[in-house]
Amino acid sequence: MTRLAPFLVLVLPLAASEITTGFTFSRVEFAYPGASSPAGYGQFSADFAALAAAGHTMGFLNVATDRGWVVQNLPVDASSGLPGLSVLFDAGSSGFTSAHVDFSSGPTQNFAPATPGQAYQFAPAPVLFNGQGQEDPVTEVGPPPEAGNAALFAGLGFRFIWQPGHTTLEEAENQCAPGTIARNLTYLHNRYGTKLPLPNNPGTGAANTQNSLVAALDKAWIKPDGTPAGGRGAGEGSKFLQTFNGTLNYIAGNKLSLSMTHHRIVPELTQIDKGDFTATQGGVSRDRTDTDTLAWLIAELDRGSALGLNYANRHIATVRGGGVILGRHFVILQDDNKQGAAGGVSWFDGGLSFTWLDWKDDGFPVLSASSLPKLSKLNGVNMLIALNTPEPATWLTIAFGAILCVLRRRS
Predict the structure, then answer these.
(1) Of 158, 111, 162, which is closest to residue 8 (Cα–Cα)?
(2) Every domain of the chain and the residues it spans
(3) What is the pLDDT of residues 284-307, one digit of tens each?
Protein backbone atom coordinates (compact mmCIF):
# COMPACT_ATOMS: atom_id res chain seq x y z
CA MET A 1 0.00 0.00 0.00
CA THR A 2 1.57 3.29 -1.13
CA ARG A 3 0.49 6.84 -0.49
CA LEU A 4 2.32 9.47 -2.53
CA ALA A 5 1.98 13.24 -2.38
CA PRO A 6 4.90 14.78 -4.30
CA PHE A 7 5.65 18.49 -3.89
CA LEU A 8 2.07 19.44 -2.90
CA VAL A 9 2.76 20.07 0.75
CA LEU A 10 5.26 22.89 0.13
CA VAL A 11 2.94 24.74 -2.22
CA LEU A 12 -0.30 24.94 -0.26
CA PRO A 13 -0.52 26.23 3.33
CA LEU A 14 -0.92 23.50 5.94
CA ALA A 15 -4.12 22.98 7.87
CA ALA A 16 -2.70 22.60 11.40
CA SER A 17 -4.34 22.62 14.82
CA GLU A 18 -3.38 21.83 18.39
CA ILE A 19 -4.88 18.61 19.71
CA THR A 20 -5.12 17.19 23.23
CA THR A 21 -6.30 13.58 22.75
CA GLY A 22 -5.30 10.50 20.77
CA PHE A 23 -1.79 10.19 22.17
CA THR A 24 0.14 9.29 25.33
CA PHE A 25 3.42 10.37 26.91
CA SER A 26 5.34 7.63 28.77
CA ARG A 27 8.56 7.47 30.71
CA VAL A 28 11.13 4.91 29.44
CA GLU A 29 13.19 2.70 31.74
CA PHE A 30 15.90 0.19 30.85
CA ALA A 31 15.52 -3.13 32.61
CA TYR A 32 18.41 -5.25 31.33
CA PRO A 33 21.24 -6.23 33.73
CA GLY A 34 23.84 -3.54 34.32
CA ALA A 35 21.93 -0.84 32.46
CA SER A 36 22.64 2.79 33.10
CA SER A 37 19.18 4.30 32.94
CA PRO A 38 19.13 8.06 32.32
CA ALA A 39 15.93 9.91 33.08
CA GLY A 40 15.88 11.74 29.76
CA TYR A 41 14.03 9.18 27.64
CA GLY A 42 10.34 9.51 26.87
CA GLN A 43 8.01 7.75 24.45
CA PHE A 44 5.24 9.47 22.49
CA SER A 45 2.54 7.03 21.36
CA ALA A 46 -0.14 7.91 18.80
CA ASP A 47 -3.43 5.97 18.77
CA PHE A 48 -4.63 5.91 15.15
CA ALA A 49 -8.18 4.79 16.02
CA ALA A 50 -8.64 7.56 18.59
CA LEU A 51 -7.21 10.14 16.20
CA ALA A 52 -9.51 8.95 13.40
CA ALA A 53 -12.52 9.20 15.73
CA ALA A 54 -11.61 12.86 16.20
CA GLY A 55 -11.43 13.37 12.44
CA HIS A 56 -7.64 13.08 12.11
CA THR A 57 -7.29 10.26 9.59
CA MET A 58 -4.31 11.33 7.49
CA GLY A 59 -1.56 13.78 8.44
CA PHE A 60 1.35 14.44 10.75
CA LEU A 61 1.94 14.96 14.46
CA ASN A 62 4.51 17.39 15.82
CA VAL A 63 5.42 17.94 19.46
CA ALA A 64 7.33 20.80 21.06
CA THR A 65 8.44 21.08 24.70
CA ASP A 66 11.07 23.11 26.51
CA ARG A 67 13.57 20.69 24.90
CA GLY A 68 12.61 21.89 21.42
CA TRP A 69 10.90 20.13 18.51
CA VAL A 70 11.07 16.68 20.09
CA VAL A 71 8.67 14.75 17.79
CA GLN A 72 8.94 15.66 14.13
CA ASN A 73 6.39 14.83 11.42
CA LEU A 74 5.20 11.53 12.88
CA PRO A 75 2.93 10.13 10.12
CA VAL A 76 -0.70 9.25 10.82
CA ASP A 77 -2.68 7.20 8.31
CA ALA A 78 -5.89 5.44 9.29
CA SER A 79 -5.71 3.36 6.09
CA SER A 80 -2.23 2.00 6.87
CA GLY A 81 -3.41 -1.06 8.80
CA LEU A 82 -1.31 0.07 11.76
CA PRO A 83 -3.09 0.51 15.13
CA GLY A 84 -0.69 3.28 16.08
CA LEU A 85 2.96 4.22 16.34
CA SER A 86 5.42 5.16 19.05
CA VAL A 87 8.57 7.25 18.85
CA LEU A 88 11.26 8.06 21.40
CA PHE A 89 11.98 11.65 22.37
CA ASP A 90 14.06 13.76 24.72
CA ALA A 91 11.90 14.34 27.81
CA GLY A 92 14.68 16.06 29.78
CA SER A 93 16.47 14.77 32.86
CA SER A 94 13.74 16.09 35.15
CA GLY A 95 10.82 15.46 32.80
CA PHE A 96 8.62 18.14 31.25
CA THR A 97 5.55 20.00 32.45
CA SER A 98 3.92 21.08 29.20
CA ALA A 99 3.87 20.19 25.53
CA HIS A 100 2.35 21.59 22.36
CA VAL A 101 0.97 18.80 20.13
CA ASP A 102 -0.20 19.72 16.62
CA PHE A 103 -1.93 17.70 13.91
CA SER A 104 -1.42 18.96 10.36
CA SER A 105 -2.50 17.83 6.91
CA GLY A 106 1.09 17.90 5.64
CA PRO A 107 4.62 17.81 7.06
CA THR A 108 6.40 20.92 8.24
CA GLN A 109 10.01 22.07 7.94
CA ASN A 110 10.04 23.62 11.39
CA PHE A 111 7.84 23.67 14.49
CA ALA A 112 8.15 26.36 17.15
CA PRO A 113 4.67 27.25 18.51
CA ALA A 114 4.28 30.78 19.83
CA THR A 115 1.59 29.86 22.35
CA PRO A 116 2.20 27.94 25.61
CA GLY A 117 1.60 24.20 25.55
CA GLN A 118 -0.85 22.11 27.53
CA ALA A 119 0.04 20.44 30.82
CA TYR A 120 0.68 16.71 30.43
CA GLN A 121 1.87 13.92 32.68
CA PHE A 122 3.54 10.61 31.96
CA ALA A 123 1.34 7.53 31.90
CA PRO A 124 1.37 5.73 35.30
CA ALA A 125 3.40 2.74 34.10
CA PRO A 126 6.77 3.27 32.39
CA VAL A 127 7.74 1.57 29.12
CA LEU A 128 10.44 -1.02 29.82
CA PHE A 129 13.22 -2.10 27.46
CA ASN A 130 15.24 -5.17 28.35
CA GLY A 131 16.99 -6.48 25.20
CA GLN A 132 20.79 -6.45 25.19
CA GLY A 133 21.63 -7.58 21.69
CA GLN A 134 23.35 -10.47 20.00
CA GLU A 135 27.03 -9.61 20.41
CA ASP A 136 28.74 -8.39 23.61
CA PRO A 137 26.07 -7.12 26.03
CA VAL A 138 25.77 -3.34 26.05
CA THR A 139 25.13 -1.51 29.31
CA GLU A 140 25.68 2.11 28.33
CA VAL A 141 22.55 4.03 27.39
CA GLY A 142 23.32 6.87 25.02
CA PRO A 143 21.56 10.21 24.90
CA PRO A 144 17.93 10.46 23.74
CA PRO A 145 17.14 11.62 20.20
CA GLU A 146 18.09 15.18 19.39
CA ALA A 147 15.46 17.84 18.75
CA GLY A 148 14.58 18.54 15.14
CA ASN A 149 15.44 21.54 12.98
CA ALA A 150 14.63 22.83 9.52
CA ALA A 151 17.93 21.56 8.04
CA LEU A 152 16.73 17.98 8.49
CA PHE A 153 13.74 18.55 6.19
CA ALA A 154 15.20 20.13 3.07
CA GLY A 155 13.36 17.99 0.51
CA LEU A 156 9.94 18.07 -1.10
CA GLY A 157 6.80 15.99 -0.68
CA PHE A 158 6.21 12.81 1.22
CA ARG A 159 5.63 9.15 0.55
CA PHE A 160 4.38 6.35 2.80
CA ILE A 161 4.69 2.62 2.08
CA TRP A 162 2.73 0.42 4.48
CA GLN A 163 2.72 -3.38 4.44
CA PRO A 164 -0.54 -5.08 5.49
CA GLY A 165 -0.60 -8.57 6.97
CA HIS A 166 2.15 -8.31 9.60
CA THR A 167 1.76 -9.90 13.03
CA THR A 168 3.46 -9.54 16.39
CA LEU A 169 5.39 -12.21 18.30
CA GLU A 170 6.44 -12.58 21.93
CA GLU A 171 10.14 -13.46 21.69
CA ALA A 172 12.30 -15.38 24.12
CA GLU A 173 15.54 -13.83 25.40
CA ASN A 174 17.83 -12.81 22.51
CA GLN A 175 15.44 -14.40 19.99
CA CYS A 176 15.26 -11.32 17.76
CA ALA A 177 16.71 -12.98 14.62
CA PRO A 178 14.49 -16.11 14.56
CA GLY A 179 11.60 -13.90 15.71
CA THR A 180 12.08 -11.51 12.79
CA ILE A 181 12.21 -14.34 10.25
CA ALA A 182 9.09 -15.94 11.82
CA ARG A 183 7.18 -12.66 11.54
CA ASN A 184 8.37 -12.21 7.96
CA LEU A 185 7.36 -15.70 6.86
CA THR A 186 3.95 -15.16 8.46
CA TYR A 187 3.56 -11.82 6.65
CA LEU A 188 4.32 -13.42 3.28
CA HIS A 189 1.76 -16.13 4.03
CA ASN A 190 -0.90 -13.62 5.11
CA ARG A 191 -0.36 -11.34 2.13
CA TYR A 192 0.49 -13.74 -0.71
CA GLY A 193 -0.63 -17.17 0.49
CA THR A 194 2.89 -18.64 0.56
CA LYS A 195 3.35 -21.87 2.48
CA LEU A 196 3.66 -21.51 6.27
CA PRO A 197 4.85 -24.78 7.83
CA LEU A 198 3.86 -23.83 11.39
CA PRO A 199 1.81 -21.09 13.08
CA ASN A 200 3.50 -18.00 14.48
CA ASN A 201 3.22 -19.06 18.14
CA PRO A 202 5.80 -18.21 20.82
CA GLY A 203 8.28 -20.93 21.68
CA THR A 204 11.91 -21.97 21.70
CA GLY A 205 13.89 -24.74 20.12
CA ALA A 206 15.67 -25.36 23.44
CA ALA A 207 12.34 -26.28 25.01
CA ASN A 208 11.28 -28.20 21.89
CA THR A 209 8.08 -26.19 21.74
CA GLN A 210 5.59 -27.88 19.45
CA ASN A 211 3.51 -26.10 16.81
CA SER A 212 5.73 -22.99 16.86
CA LEU A 213 7.40 -21.49 13.80
CA VAL A 214 9.96 -19.52 15.80
CA ALA A 215 10.89 -22.64 17.80
CA ALA A 216 11.50 -24.51 14.54
CA LEU A 217 13.70 -21.66 13.33
CA ASP A 218 15.61 -21.79 16.62
CA LYS A 219 16.45 -25.41 15.85
CA ALA A 220 17.42 -24.54 12.25
CA TRP A 221 20.07 -22.07 13.44
CA ILE A 222 23.63 -23.36 13.38
CA LYS A 223 25.92 -22.78 16.34
CA PRO A 224 28.05 -19.60 16.53
CA ASP A 225 31.15 -21.61 15.61
CA GLY A 226 29.52 -22.69 12.34
CA THR A 227 28.68 -26.28 13.28
CA PRO A 228 25.23 -27.31 12.07
CA ALA A 229 24.02 -29.19 15.16
CA GLY A 230 22.23 -27.86 18.19
CA GLY A 231 20.39 -24.79 16.99
CA ARG A 232 20.13 -21.56 18.98
CA GLY A 233 20.73 -22.25 22.65
CA ALA A 234 18.49 -20.73 25.31
CA GLY A 235 19.39 -17.06 25.75
CA GLU A 236 22.03 -17.10 23.01
CA GLY A 237 22.16 -14.30 20.51
CA SER A 238 22.42 -14.90 16.77
CA LYS A 239 25.31 -13.95 14.53
CA PHE A 240 24.96 -13.21 10.82
CA LEU A 241 26.27 -16.64 9.84
CA GLN A 242 23.60 -18.34 11.94
CA THR A 243 20.84 -16.09 10.62
CA PHE A 244 21.74 -16.58 6.96
CA ASN A 245 22.28 -20.33 7.20
CA GLY A 246 19.28 -20.94 9.44
CA THR A 247 16.88 -18.96 7.26
CA LEU A 248 18.05 -20.42 3.95
CA ASN A 249 18.19 -23.97 5.31
CA TYR A 250 14.66 -23.67 6.72
CA ILE A 251 13.37 -22.36 3.39
CA ALA A 252 15.07 -25.22 1.50
CA GLY A 253 14.10 -27.92 3.99
CA ASN A 254 10.44 -26.94 3.86
CA LYS A 255 10.41 -26.33 0.07
CA LEU A 256 9.18 -22.76 0.41
CA SER A 257 8.87 -20.84 -2.87
CA LEU A 258 10.85 -17.87 -1.61
CA SER A 259 14.05 -16.10 -2.56
CA MET A 260 16.39 -14.12 -0.32
CA THR A 261 18.55 -11.06 -0.96
CA HIS A 262 20.68 -8.91 1.32
CA HIS A 263 22.33 -5.49 1.36
CA ARG A 264 25.55 -5.05 3.37
CA ILE A 265 25.09 -1.35 4.12
CA VAL A 266 28.34 -1.16 6.10
CA PRO A 267 30.28 -4.12 4.64
CA GLU A 268 33.12 -4.04 7.16
CA LEU A 269 30.65 -4.62 10.01
CA THR A 270 28.40 -7.31 8.57
CA GLN A 271 30.60 -10.42 9.05
CA ILE A 272 29.33 -11.62 5.66
CA ASP A 273 31.77 -11.60 2.74
CA LYS A 274 31.09 -9.71 -0.47
CA GLY A 275 29.05 -11.62 -3.01
CA ASP A 276 26.20 -14.07 -2.90
CA PHE A 277 25.94 -16.20 0.25
CA THR A 278 25.48 -19.97 -0.09
CA ALA A 279 24.09 -21.84 2.90
CA THR A 280 25.14 -25.27 4.10
CA GLN A 281 22.14 -26.88 2.37
CA GLY A 282 22.63 -24.99 -0.90
CA GLY A 283 20.21 -22.07 -0.56
CA VAL A 284 21.53 -18.73 -1.85
CA SER A 285 21.03 -15.10 -0.76
CA ARG A 286 21.88 -12.64 -3.54
CA ASP A 287 24.11 -9.71 -2.60
CA ARG A 288 22.58 -6.34 -3.57
CA THR A 289 25.20 -4.15 -1.88
CA ASP A 290 26.21 -2.52 -5.16
CA THR A 291 22.78 -0.86 -5.46
CA ASP A 292 21.90 2.41 -3.71
CA THR A 293 20.78 1.58 -0.17
CA LEU A 294 17.74 3.82 0.05
CA ALA A 295 16.63 3.06 -3.51
CA TRP A 296 16.88 -0.67 -2.77
CA LEU A 297 14.96 -0.31 0.51
CA ILE A 298 12.13 1.62 -1.13
CA ALA A 299 12.02 -0.79 -4.09
CA GLU A 300 11.77 -3.82 -1.78
CA LEU A 301 9.01 -2.18 0.28
CA ASP A 302 7.19 -1.32 -2.94
CA ARG A 303 7.54 -4.89 -4.10
CA GLY A 304 6.05 -6.16 -0.85
CA SER A 305 9.17 -8.01 0.31
CA ALA A 306 9.52 -9.07 3.94
CA LEU A 307 12.41 -7.04 5.31
CA GLY A 308 14.64 -7.47 8.34
CA LEU A 309 16.89 -4.62 9.45
CA ASN A 310 20.00 -5.25 11.54
CA TYR A 311 21.71 -2.46 13.43
CA ALA A 312 24.77 -2.21 15.61
CA ASN A 313 25.47 -5.92 15.02
CA ARG A 314 23.22 -6.44 18.02
CA HIS A 315 19.58 -6.40 17.01
CA ILE A 316 17.35 -7.24 14.08
CA ALA A 317 13.75 -6.10 13.65
CA THR A 318 11.00 -6.53 11.07
CA VAL A 319 10.40 -3.57 8.75
CA ARG A 320 6.63 -2.95 8.47
CA GLY A 321 6.83 0.15 6.34
CA GLY A 322 8.85 3.20 5.46
CA GLY A 323 9.15 6.13 3.14
CA VAL A 324 10.39 9.70 2.92
CA ILE A 325 9.11 12.96 4.40
CA LEU A 326 10.54 16.23 3.05
CA GLY A 327 13.70 14.41 1.98
CA ARG A 328 14.19 12.51 5.26
CA HIS A 329 13.78 8.73 5.19
CA PHE A 330 12.08 6.70 7.89
CA VAL A 331 11.23 3.09 8.72
CA ILE A 332 8.58 1.41 10.86
CA LEU A 333 10.01 -1.39 13.00
CA GLN A 334 8.28 -4.34 14.70
CA ASP A 335 10.14 -6.20 17.43
CA ASP A 336 9.88 -7.26 21.09
CA ASN A 337 11.37 -4.78 23.51
CA LYS A 338 10.67 -7.05 26.50
CA GLN A 339 12.16 -10.31 25.33
CA GLY A 340 11.40 -13.18 27.68
CA ALA A 341 8.57 -11.27 29.36
CA ALA A 342 5.01 -10.38 28.46
CA GLY A 343 4.50 -7.18 26.46
CA GLY A 344 6.87 -5.04 24.44
CA VAL A 345 5.28 -5.90 21.08
CA SER A 346 2.56 -3.24 20.67
CA TRP A 347 2.49 0.35 19.44
CA PHE A 348 2.06 1.70 22.98
CA ASP A 349 4.93 -0.23 24.62
CA GLY A 350 7.72 0.17 22.10
CA GLY A 351 7.15 -2.87 19.89
CA LEU A 352 5.83 -0.95 16.87
CA SER A 353 7.92 2.13 16.42
CA PHE A 354 8.83 4.94 14.06
CA THR A 355 12.43 6.04 13.56
CA TRP A 356 14.30 8.27 11.14
CA LEU A 357 16.95 6.64 8.95
CA ASP A 358 19.65 9.30 8.69
CA TRP A 359 23.05 9.37 7.03
CA LYS A 360 25.75 10.99 9.15
CA ASP A 361 28.61 13.08 7.79
CA ASP A 362 30.94 10.06 7.85
CA GLY A 363 28.55 8.13 5.60
CA PHE A 364 27.36 5.88 8.41
CA PRO A 365 23.57 5.35 8.50
CA VAL A 366 21.89 5.48 11.91
CA LEU A 367 18.41 5.14 13.37
CA SER A 368 17.96 8.56 14.93
CA ALA A 369 15.06 7.50 17.14
CA SER A 370 15.97 3.85 17.55
CA SER A 371 13.49 1.34 18.92
CA LEU A 372 16.38 -0.14 20.92
CA PRO A 373 17.46 3.01 22.76
CA LYS A 374 20.31 1.46 24.70
CA LEU A 375 22.16 1.30 21.37
CA SER A 376 21.62 4.93 20.50
CA LYS A 377 25.38 5.47 20.30
CA LEU A 378 25.84 2.29 18.29
CA ASN A 379 22.68 2.13 16.24
CA GLY A 380 24.27 2.17 12.82
CA VAL A 381 22.32 0.17 10.27
CA ASN A 382 24.63 -2.40 8.73
CA MET A 383 22.42 -5.02 7.07
CA LEU A 384 19.06 -5.39 5.35
CA ILE A 385 17.66 -8.84 4.55
CA ALA A 386 14.72 -9.33 2.18
CA LEU A 387 12.58 -12.43 1.73
CA ASN A 388 10.61 -12.34 -1.49
CA THR A 389 8.10 -14.29 -3.47
CA PRO A 390 9.71 -15.24 -6.81
CA GLU A 391 10.14 -12.52 -9.40
CA PRO A 392 7.52 -12.48 -12.20
CA ALA A 393 10.08 -13.93 -14.61
CA THR A 394 10.71 -16.77 -12.16
CA TRP A 395 7.00 -17.52 -11.92
CA LEU A 396 6.86 -17.67 -15.73
CA THR A 397 9.75 -20.11 -15.75
CA ILE A 398 8.04 -22.28 -13.12
CA ALA A 399 4.75 -22.21 -15.02
CA PHE A 400 6.47 -23.02 -18.32
CA GLY A 401 8.27 -25.91 -16.68
CA ALA A 402 5.00 -27.25 -15.29
CA ILE A 403 3.39 -27.07 -18.75
CA LEU A 404 6.32 -28.99 -20.27
CA CYS A 405 5.95 -31.70 -17.62
CA VAL A 406 2.26 -32.09 -18.42
CA LEU A 407 2.96 -32.27 -22.18
CA ARG A 408 5.67 -34.86 -21.67
CA ARG A 409 3.36 -37.01 -19.55
CA ARG A 410 0.64 -36.83 -22.19
CA SER A 411 3.08 -37.76 -24.93
Answers:
(1) 158
(2) 9-153, 160-395
(3) 999 999 998 889 999 999 999 999
